[in-house]
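Reopening this one. Same input as before:
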Amino acid sequence: MSDTGTLYVVATPLGNTDDLSPRARAILMDADVVLAEDTRRAGLLFQRLGLTRHGRLISFFEHNEDKKLPKVLDQLAEGLTVALISDAGTPLLSDPGFTLVRACRDEGYRVTPVPGPSAPVTALSASGLPPLPYTFLGFPPRKKSQTERLFRAHRDTGATLVLFERKTRLKGTLSIARDILGERDFCVARELTKEYEEFLRGNLGDLDSFDFELRGELTVIIAPGGDDGQADEATILERIAEETEAGGKPKEIARRVAERSEGWTPKAVYALMRD
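Same output, byte for byte:
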């Protein structure tokens, strides 16, 4: 398919316009089509960057991705150059685009990354928490039970956890993390690369002293559990069975198991009992 077009996956600045690479600038100016999560914000971004756009600006977001996909593939078949951008940072990381990239790969169209700013990596690099290994979780689920399940799945991996969260849900998500993961160090990075950039460090055990009145885009980093002999899930299940035989109400059993288990809270044990 040498005569077909190319899909460029283009990273755009998180805030500081100087972070746009010369290559990204050239591609965005010359592309026949620019796919943007929010065309209004994309238009303002082009203005801030001082870019004169050659091609069409088309909306491409979570709820229209499947509908727009055939048209984009047709444009690539016609030999057009297509650039995919998100509102800020690297596309596909908690943003639409995965379905498109996979379809292009399946159809044999060229897909080329244009690397640049990425909020998870940017926050991790300056957080002061262990950088490797790390796991990016995106936005946690809206339902509490699903968020609990997510944290339990990553509790014993030994990886630093990186996630996005909205300011209205931050306290609740960190509280769930505390209950499932224990008292780990964390960092909330806000307004990355912007004038009011800030890194707020703390411990999940001290959430009551943390100011949650935060504005701007938030990236959360949670340190891995220490090598402190924290019991794994299989051990906790064995202790639950032992304490159940000893008798008592479920919450009382959870309390006794937690007292025997480093890094586990009664609430975390109780949640495991309910699964």
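So the earlier flakiness isn't reproducible anymore. For the record, The longest strand covers residues 160-165.
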